[in-house]
Amino acid sequence: MKVGDLIRVPPCTNARGTAPGHPCGCIFCANNSTRVGIVIRKVSRDYIKSGHLDVKFDVGVWSLTPDEVEIISESP
After folding, report:
1. Residues 6+ apart with CB under 8 A from 47
2. Domain with 38 in it
């Protein structure tokens, strides 16, 4: 992933790990988010492991790793 990529966070499973569609307490479910975001920068904070990227969603900016998301569209 790189800055400018459009990404999506997959649907959650509920606390028991059953099928998607059952709301959980995460920020995306709690705010009825589209789960679609754009990568805005590479994280360069010492207290966060390398590989994290800040992604702007409709519910705010979150730091995620590439294995937590799927790429919808790559930036040129």
Report:
1. none
2. 6-73
Alpha carbons 6 and 50: distance in angstroms, whole number: 20
Angle at alpha carbon of residue 27, lines to 26 and 33, rounded to 5°: 115
What is the dihedral sign for C-alpha 33, 38, 42, 44? negative
The tens digit of pLDDT for each residue in 6-61 reads: 999 998 766 555 566 555 778 888 888 999 999 999 887 665 566 788 999 999 99
Distance CA 9, CA 43 (A): 18
What is the number of structural domains in the chain?
A: 1
